[in-house]
Specification:
mainly alpha, single chain
Amino acid sequence: MNVSLTPELEELISQKVSSGLYHSASEVIREALRLLKEQDELRQFRREQLRKEVAIGLEQLDRGEGIPGKAVFEKLRQKSRARRKGRT
């Protein structure tokens, strides 16, 4: 396999190897790909969790367990005001 990298990425790899954390450029690339795979899996997990939560919410709405929109937005405004007061 042949891979083309930008000069900036080549420099980053060289820095990682020079730091002693990695023995070779291949190790740096393997670690980067492992982290990319882990990140993709986390995104997929979060997406699935969100879908489940949306399905639960829709079921609650179907049962009439929803909260009127005006009440929701008022509660959000109250939380926002409270956070802003806490910052000052």
